Amino acid sequence: MADETEIIEQTTPAKRAYDPWRFFTVGMVMLLSLIVVSTVVYYLLGFYYGKPWGIKDCLFMVIITLSTIGYGDWLKIQEIPGNELIMAFTMFLILAGMGVPAFLIANVTALIVDGIIGDTFRRRRMQQEIAKLSGHVVVCGAGGTGEHCIEELVKLNRKFVVIDHDEERLKTLQHAVGEFPYVVGHAERDEVLTQAGVARATGLVCALADDKANLFITLSARVLNPDLRIVTKGVDDHVRKKMVIAGANAVVSPTAIGGLRMISELLRPATTGFLDTMLRQRTSFRFDELVVGKGSGLAGKTLAQSELRQIADVLVVAARHPGQENFIYNPKADFLLEPDCVIVVLGQVAEVDKLRPLFAGNG
Fold first, then answer.
1. Which carries the bigger pLDDT value, residue 19 or residue 359?
2. Which of 31, 72, 265, 345 has the highest CB neighbour number within 10 Å of its CB?
3. Judging by DSSP bridges, how do beta strands 342-348 and 314-320 pair with one another?
């Protein structure tokens, strides 16, 4: 049933957003068409009534009628016997002149307000928001991989900034996942990384499709922030080794993960389904890690003495002593919480967030 719902959501066309440029184009086409057709009609009516008017006079009559300037009966229609047909068409033109120009003016106003003024204030607001950020994550690239990274960061309520050269893609992504700050530009440039606050960030994700671009970003970001944790996407094994040398803390291969996922679907479908459900739902469970700070009140206590289960509804899955690489799975109650000790927990995002101040030493 869940799979069927996903298929329906993917195949159902999204509601088209209001686009002032599209309506402005439609309004211009309508206005120009009305001017051309009305000019030709006046020209033909002049021949029909034996009063051949010039194209210039017919065009001027149409313009002053649509603009409601009121120069009077320029073609002297009142002097033509049996002028009912011309009068009827002129009344139609007056009514059309009230609607089409008004429609065009409304969309021109929307373009000015939403396009120029709106974008200016939006960019300024985002720049101010980015300038205040610290300890955030910088995501380079809003393509397929970057989009999934952004969705997960939104679900985890983490602070982040996105860099991409395609602003339309960024705006579309904002409509899908919600508002987030972004910088329009190429992440390979130092000034763009600086504008995204990479010097104040704690993490950076390189999610571009080109391995060489990810390598260059990794090198630039490491120079700008030596303490930054960098996770980059890498497909070519040779480039992946260079990424580690350039300063990447971790290199993720989509092809390797795809292969592991296929085998997991084959051999462990129930476990894979549980993990998928956990990642899809915004309020579902997550695996997360907590580090015991040097000023934390938990330092020197055991898991039993910390009473983590009484503070938050989380499950301690694994733990690692400082300076060690191997984890202890399902640690016992007498496991000692030392400074820089890492605890891996499973729980809802809000429950895990309850423990962060306690582990950091400010709660």
1. 359
2. 345
3. antiparallel
Q: What is the Cα–Cα distance from 73 to 60, expressed in whole angstroms?
A: 11
Contacts 24+ apart (CB under 8 A), 93-99: 93/34, 93/38, 93/62, 93/65, 93/66, 94/65, 94/68, 96/34, 96/66, 97/65, 97/66, 97/67, 97/68, 98/68
Token couple for 136: 């955030």
pLDDT digits (tens, 9 = 90+) for 137-146: 999 999 889 9
Provide the 3-class DSSP secondary structure of residue 170.
Answer: helix
* Pairing assessment for the beta strands 250-252 and 229-233 based on DSSP bridges: parallel
CB 334 within 8 A of CB 343: no
Residue type, 288: D
d(CA 279, CA 154): 12
Q: Per the structure block, which two tokens stand in for 183?
A: 């910088």
Contact 165, 188 (CB under 8 A): no
Query: What percent of the residues of the chain are helix, what percent strand, and what percent coil, each to the nearest 5?
Result: 55, 15, 30
CA distance 251 to 333: 35
* Percent of the chain topping pLDDT 70: 84
pLDDT digits (tens, 9 = 90+) for 194-247: 999 999 999 999 999 899 999 999 999 999 999 999 999 988 878 888 898 889
Q: How far apart, in whole angstroms, are the C-alpha atoms of residue 246 and residue 204?
A: 14
CA distance 182 to 24: 28
Structural domains in the chain, sorted by start: 20-127 (1.10.287.70), 133-258 (3.40.50.720), 284-360 (3.30.70.1450)
Residue position matching structure tokens 């893609």: 169
Q: Look-up: residue for tokens 């000015």? A: 112
